[in-house]
TrEMBL record:
Name listed for the protein in its UniProt record: SDR family oxidoreductase
Cited Pfam families: adh_short_C2
PANTHER family reported for this sequence: 3-OXOACYL-(ACYL-CARRIER-PROTEIN) REDUCTASE, NADPH-DEPENDENT REDUCTASE BACG
Region Disordered: start-end pairs: 200-222
Domain of life: Bacteria
Bias (Polar residues): 200-209
InterPro entries the UniProt entry points to: NAD(P)-bd_dom_sf (IPR036291), SDR (IPR050259), SDR_fam (IPR002347)
Family: Belongs to the short-chain dehydrogenases/reductases (SDR) family.
Species in which this protein is naturally found: Comamonas piscis
Length: 259
């Protein structure tokens, strides 16, 4: 299937590792001109070099923090007219809501809701004028199946999904779609940190926590980042102009609901 991504400009946040890297990789393999953004230059440089070598086309990078106005401006200076925007940011480690201060909440909201919404604000009009746009937010399964220890993510990411539900219906007639990807447990550095924190809290060995979490999934394993990358490339493609405002679960069937 030709996804129609050749020459499309793509800006991928968190593109140096994990699911962001996988998304950048698949978009570049499909012919998009990709810029990856994150906070750490060393990991960005290594990722851009690896992606460029594998994909046979230059993948550029920009050091930028999605929670900061200056970071969002720097990202758009590096990719001024993106056809594809992938919003992706770190989450917070598990914890008890009694320990979260106002400052913690504001940091979480800036990271997982306000920053991505401002990125949409900055690019959506240009996408509509050009007649093509695909915005994909990497969110979390926790917006459908909340975990008490992930309350910061439950709250902030749910706010982002709620916002998208309204905006996505306004832009689709201009061939600009906005969708969310809701990953479950994936084999990433973020998942390793999550498991380490749960092991500390429970007093169980890290390997035991990991094995029990994998066994509990109907697929019997964690997801592979490239599986998310493939889904994002499809949602970014020319074939999804009639798909908008949706939240795509990708969790091995762990979510127990019918709807």
């Amino acid at each position: 299937m030709d996804l129609g991504l050749t020459g499309r400009a793509a800006l991928v946040w968190g593109g140096s590792k994990g699911m962001g890297y996988a998304a950048a990789r698949q978009l570049a393999l499909e012919g998009a001109e990709v810029v990856i953004a994150a906070r750490t230059e060393s990991s960005l440089q290594a990722a851009a070099q690896a992606l460029s070598a594998e994909c046979g086309r230059p993948v550029r990078y920009v050091v930028a923090d999605i929670t900061k106005k200056a970071g969002r401006e720097a990202a758009l200076a590096a990719c001024p007219q993106p056809d594809i925007l992938v919003n992706n940011s770190d989450g917070y480690p598990p914890g008890d809501f009694r320990d979260w201060t106002d400052e913690t909440w504001h940091e979480a909201l800036d990271m997982m809701m306000v920053g991505p919404i401002d990125m949409m604000r900055r690019v959506v009009d240009g996408m509509q004028q050009r007649g093509y746009g695909r915005i994909i937010n990497i969110v979390s399964r926790s917006v459908k199946a909340a975990h008490a220890e992930l309350g910061l993510s439950n709250g902030a990411r749910s706010g982002l999904v709620g916002f998208v539900a309204g905006l996505a219906r306004q832009t689709v007639r201009h061939n600009v779609t906005i969708n969310n990807v809701l990953p479950g447990a994936f084999d990433t550095d973020a998942q390793a940190r999550h498991i380490h924190k749960l092991a500390q809290q429970s007093g169980r060995p890290t390997d035991q926590v990991r094995q029990s979490r994998e066994a509990a999934n109907p697929a019997g394993r964690f997801g592979r980042p490239e599986e998310v990358g493939a889904l994002i490339a499809y949602l970014a493609s020319q074939h999804t102009g009639y798909v908008t405002g949706q939240s795509w679960l990708i969790d091995g069937g762990e979510y127990p609901g019918t709807y």
